[in-house]
Design brief:
- With 323 residues, the chain is mostly helical.
- It has 2 domains: 76 residues; 215 residues, no CATH class.
- 81% of the residues lie in helices and 0% in strands.
- The protein has 14 helices and no strands.
- The protein is elongated.
């Protein structure tokens, strides 16, 4: 991109940020986070393409001012990690709700395919999950404890193993975006086909209600986080397929950075899901009302953090920029 085009596309935004920085009032943290993300991206691009230009010098100065605002003293610097999850991740999601929706739709389609395939062919789940696992599950169903697997492993080992595995899956989901986003779509669909066939098997053995009540105690967070990791993969894949006005390399760098932030931001959710699966899900006779409290509480958090809060912060940023 020519420097003059780069200037025309971003000049009004930079002027707005400079005006905000000149004000004496302290900006809303969401606005500061947005300025910091956008300016560091723009400065990185300008430095890579027009290193000795006045544009780069200007952006360096402007970015430094925002940096000082974010890290103006030790006390605020110590809150950097907290602000990453409180402001930066939700603000980032405000840009990618369309890709989150695509990831969710792919997951729903995969789950339905798994359900339908298992209902029409009872051996389908064996192809997906393996004979040993299916045979063990059927044996537990016959013994009256279809979800007994959750009580068979030592709690500490189970927590460590499941949490690490889920984090690994999320990074794989992100990395598969390198295959033009199709890789991520395939990986989401595969995991959700497995989920759908798993529950369809329980339905065929008339224990679906008990399975849903137990599995979704941790599955609400776990499965949702995997689908959200799929959104990070789509961000990566789309970044070099649809670079917009940036070079493919620069667009890829931006997409990779945003995707990594999202995957890292999911780690606490996987830790919570691993804790629930290892220490709570094993109580398969838990009262229905208690299971529902955990499930609905998890769902409420997910909707609030990944949908409602990003929209709210986006609205705040828009109103601040407009004024």
């Amino acid at each position: 991109m020519k420097e003059i085009t780069f200037l025309k596309q971003n000049a009004s935004k930079w002027e707005s940020y400079e005006s905000s920085l000149d004000k004496k009032e302290v900006e809303h943290p969401a606005k500061v986070a947005e300025m910091f993300i956008e300016l560091t991206d723009d400065f990185s691009y300008s430095k890579s393409n027009y290193e000795a230009s006045k544009t780069t010098q200007y952006l360096n100065s402007l970015t430094s001012r925002v940096h000082q605002l974010v890290y103006r003293n030790k006390k605020e610097s110590s809150k950097r990690v907290f602000l990453f999850w409180k402001i930066e991740i939700p603000t980032l999601f405000g840009k990618y709700h369309n890709l989150l929706l695509i990831s969710f739709v792919v997951g729903i389609i995969g789950t339905l395919l798994g359900v339908v395939s298992q209902l029409y062919d009872e051996s389908f789940v064996r192809i997906i999950m393996g004979d040993d696992y299916v045979n063990q599950t059927i044996e537990r169903i016959k013994n009256g404890n279809p979800i007994g697997i959750y009580g068979e492993m030592p709690q500490g080992f189970m927590f460590f193993y499941i949490t690490i595995n889920n984090i690994r899956v999320s990074f794989m989901m992100f990395a598969m975006g390198m295959f033009f986003s199709v890789g991520t779509g395939f990986y989401i669909m595969y995991n959700c086909i497995m989920l759908g066939s798993f529950f369809a098997m329980f339905y065929q053995y008339n224990v679906l209600g008990k399975a849903l009540k137990v599995v979704w105690i941790h599955g609400t967070l776990e499965i949702s986080a995997i689908v959200i990791a799929g959104c990070a993969g789509f961000i990566l894949g789309n970044s070099f397929m649809f670079p917009d006005s940036y070079s493919r390399l620069e667009s890829f760098k931006r997409g990779a950075k945003d995707g990594i932030k999202i995957v890292v931001g999911l780690i606490p959710i996987f830790i919570c899901a691993g804790f629930l699966e290892s220490f709570i899900t094993r109580y398969t006779e838990m009262p229905l009302w208690l299971s529902l409290i955990i499930i609905l509480g998890s769902l409420t958090f997910l909707v609030w953090y990944f949908i409602w809060l990003p929209l709210k912060l986006k609205k705040i940023n828009y109103a601040t920029t407009k004024n």
